[in-house]
Amino acid sequence: MTLAALMCIPLVTNIFFNTPAHYLAFTLSPLLTFVVGGILSWSCKTEAFGFRSREVFLLTNSSWILVCVFGALPFIFETEISFTDAFFETMSGITTTGSTVLVGLDDMNPGILMWRSVLQWLGGDWLYCHGGCGSAFS
After folding, report:
1. Nearest to 10 by CA among 77, 103, 65
2. Largest CB tally within 10 Å, which of 13, 48, 136, 137?
């Protein structure tokens, strides 16, 4: 559900730059992400239990894939690229590799450019600090 909240940043950017034609992508994407995230969170409310190594690996891989699938939604709704390219763009941002499949970045709307920046921040700073530093002290 954090990803859904972060998807609102490009919506605010589009509102600031007065580009109403681009509001839909950053309204539907966080809504879908929040609903699915809420359903998954609600359905997994159980008693405390421990994880074995196998479950930890599965949970980690599944989390990365789901974040990339839902992070690709704005690219799919906003640009005319395939799901594979949108997934690649999202994975590239979250892993901070810097590769892109988008053409004409100078002419894209500010919301998509902000979303690319948010993805790179999410992967570079936020996941590093909360995942790496947090696990080092627990």
Report:
1. 77
2. 13
Q: Global pTM?
A: 0.83
Residue for token digits 């998954």?
Answer: 40
User: Rounded distance, CA 113 to CA 102, Å?
Assistant: 11
User: Which of the four pLDDT bands, split at 50, 70 and 90, describes residue 45?
Assistant: confident
Give φ, ψ of 103 to 5 degrees.
Answer: -115, 140
| 33/28 Cα distance (integer angstroms) | 8
Q: List the one residue out of 91, 99, 101, 100 whose CA is nearest residue 122.
A: 91
Q: What is the pLDDT of residues 20-44, one digit of tens each?
A: 888 999 999 999 999 998 898 888 7
Mean pLDDT computed over every residue of the chain: 86
User: 95-100 long-range contacts, Cβ below 8 Å, gap at least 24?
Assistant: 95/123, 96/120, 96/123, 96/124
Contacts of 96 (CB under 8 A, 6+ apart): 120, 123, 124
Cβ pair 111, 78 in contact under 8 A: yes
